[in-house]
Amino acid sequence: MFSIANSVKNKARLFFAIDIPQNIKNQLEKMQQKNPVFTGRAVKVHNFHITLQFLGSLDRQKIPDLIDTIDSPGIKPFSLTLERYAYYPKAEVGCIEVIQGKDQLKEVRKHINQSIAQEGFFAPKEKHGFRPHVTLFRECQPVSDLQQLLNIELKAERFCLMESVQNEKGVYYEVLEEWPLYQPSIKEQFFGIKD
């Protein structure tokens, strides 16, 4: 089994994700502090993201090749809503799940997996279906009603490749590269067409 400690020199622990705007990260941090739905280890605000595809451990010298396999999926920017709390008991994770925008996230994920597979990179098989979410707490337990409805909206315009880096303060997720979801054509750029 992979250990983050083993990744420091020549391996990197990687995943593709939607990074979250700072104003939404700040809102989620306030929810962590003021709304005791879960008790456990709070995820640091700079680490909030929506995972699209976990890759696992990869040799560092292969990262440029991995980056070169990805291009824009041609999916126009779309809205996401974080709508409900969820608890994953096996992982002891407390989170907020994406409802609106889930199908578009699946399409972005499919594009990533097809792109990397063409160049011989493969993501590990997942035991559970794709459930896009933002993790708020780890090693936690629910202590309140998970049925509360939320309505946190953000726009997905880009996706990124992130590395899980271990430092003296714990785990930090660093963006290595990012791509727009959609590259407008010359005609669209010239005429300012947005839809």
UniProtKB/TrEMBL annotation:
A motif (HXTX 1) lies at residues 49-52. InterPro entries: Cyclic_Pdiesterase, Phosphoesterase_HXTX, RNA_CPDase. Residues 18-90 form the Phosphoesterase HXTX domain. It is an enzyme of class 3 (hydrolase). Transmembrane segments: none annotated. GO terms for molecular function: 2',3'-cyclic-nucleotide 3'-phosphodiesterase activity; RNA 2',3'-cyclic 3'-phosphodiesterase activity. Keywords: Hydrolase. A motif (HXTX 2) lies at residues 133-136. The active site is at H49, H133. SUPFAM superfamilies: LigT-like. Gene3D superfamilies: Cyclic phosphodiesterase. It holds the Pfam family LigT_PEase. It catalyses: a 3'-end 2',3'-cyclophospho-ribonucleotide-RNA + H2O = a 3'-end 2'-phospho-ribonucleotide-RNA + H(+). It comes from the Bacteria. The keyword Electron transport does not apply. Its EC number is 3.1.4.58. The keyword Hydrolase applies. Belongs to the 2H phosphoesterase superfamily. ThpR family. Hydrolyzes RNA 2',3'-cyclic phosphodiester to an RNA 2'-phosphomonoester. This is RNA 2',3'-cyclic phosphodiesterase. It comes from Kangiella spongicola.
